[in-house]
Amino acid sequence: MILRFFQLYSIFIIGLLAGFGSYSAVAQNIEANHERDFGLNPKLYNGVLYADFYGHQADGHPFIDQKEFHLGTLTLYNEHYEEVLLNYDIYSQKIILAFNDIHEASRQIEVPLENLVSFQWDDKRFMRADLPVHPAAIVQALGFDKHQFYFYWIKTLVANTHQNSKDYSFSSPKKVIYFKQGDRLVEIKKNKDLIRCMELSKQDAVKKWLRSNGVKVQKSNELSLILLTQFLNEL
User: Fold this and answer.
1) Are residues 161 and 73 part of one domain?
2) What is the CA radius of gyration of the chain?
3) Which residues pair with 121 in a beta bridge?
4) Same domain for 137 and 88
5) Is the same domain home to 181 and 194?
6) DSSP string spanning 94-115?
7) Are the CB atoms for 60 and 170 separated by under 8 Å?
8) In a domain, 22, yes or no
9) DSSP strand pairing (147-154 vs 106-110)
10) Looking at the structure, do residues 59 and 107 belong to the same domain, yes or no?
11) Is residue 77 part of a domain?
12) Does residue 119 share a domain with residue 56?
């Protein structure tokens, strides 16, 4: 009798595990069939339509460098996507994904920021980060390891005063620079702000490097700041 009970119990457990396996397989098939039937990955192409409310009222554009989209990479949660068309609206702080739908119509959607990990095009790397006054902000990251610089890019709308022009113009892109040192983030407005972040025993070496390389953090190009992070990581 006991032997019969264990035989029935074993059959039940095997059937239950098989059922879970079948459910997982069905879920994968549903996602695969969705991509096959609609041609779009629902994890990637998931967001509200992007609307530029300012194009008819403002000169210029709200993007970080150009209206044209960049071919780049995008990471959402643990999913990484190659060769996607991206742009970064720094006026409204939105990441825009461009694509053609199943009818070959052009679409632009906003990437949900709660899903965003990072994105990149050319040699520029962006990520989501918590800044002192901007939680879950989008930043351009320079350097690696324990010392990095973060650029927080912004644009503003400026009223036009000339006749025969649109009501507003987008400003040139401006950046706020933060220095990341481990878990610490400090806004850098001048070289002294950076030097104060370093241990007393290392401050003279940092001053000397900045002076000999002619680096002023607020005005230096990206390559100079990347070289600076490399120096600080090795110091």
Assistant:
1) yes
2) 25
3) 72, 124
4) yes
5) no
6) EEEEEEE-TT--EEEEEPPTTT
7) yes
8) no
9) unpaired
10) yes
11) yes
12) yes
Verify that 160 and 215 share a domain, yes or no: no
Instruction: State the amino acid at position 11 in one-letter form.
Output: I
Same domain (yes/no): 72, 150: yes
Is residue 181 domain-shared with residue 193, that is, in the same domain?
no
Residue-by-residue pLDDT tens, the chain, 235 positions = 444 444 444 444 444 444 444 434 433 443 444 343 335 788 888 889 998 877 678 889 999 999 999 999 999 988 999 999 999 999 999 999 999 988 888 999 999 999 999 999 999 999 999 998 888 899 999 999 999 999 999 999 998 887 767 888 999 999 999 999 999 999 999 999 999 999 999 999 999 999 999 999 999 999 999 999 999 999 9
Number of domains in the chain: 2
Among 161, 141, 157, CA closest to 149: 141
Q: Write phi, then psi, for 89 (nearest 5 degrees).
A: -85, 100
Altogether, the residues listed in the chain come to a count of: 235
Structure token pair of residue 17: 């595990």
Per DSSP, 91 falls in state T
